[in-house]
Amino acid sequence: MDKVLNLMPPTGHKWNLSSSLPLATLVLALAAGSWGVFWALITLVAQGFELTSTQFSAILLAPAIVSVPLLWPCYRWALGASNPGNLLLIAFIALIPSLAGLALASHFSHLLLVGMGLGIVPGCFVIGIVYLRKLTHIPCVILTVTLLMLSILGLIFAYASTPLITEAFGWRFTPLMSIALIVIAASFLAALGEAPEPQV
Length: 200
Description:
Elements: H1 2-6, H2 20-45, H3 53-79, H4 84-93, H5 95-104, H6 108-117, H7 121-136, H8 140-169, H9 173-192
Helix pairs in contact: 2-3, 2-7, 2-8, 2-9, 3-6, 3-7, 4-7, 4-9, 5-6, 5-9, 7-8
């Protein structure tokens, strides 16, 4: 409880709108977009993989089912960290193996494992909230609502654009493109992101 209260800024504290804010926002939008890519691709390849309706539903629900028990540990992990930005990078980069697995998938079990791996996305979100809250001192409600809306937009854009990319380059190319974007965004955040001010 004390740690949570310490996140409240003192009266009159100015918001620190650093370069980390747009970079972390991009990271969270790309993380959410990985769900959009996954859901769109599963819809496109379901017939080719001869998925039953039960298998199809299980794959689509796998990210959400895995993410629920991860939310609280990720939040506490970030809250107790001296630099939650590093944790955000770790969680963000952890998406790469799942997206690589999606590009190589050839069986229902592969797709299910990919979906479970993408369950880290909401974990990225809560870690990002803690990171930016400590860094910028923007009120938590404003920060959460704004980033949630931008993440949803990222998810919708990825879902809508995936069929176009798939038609042009093939469905296995799309996850590889997502990996390239993740590497670029993570590199910028690692190089330009700031550490939160020490709590006193």
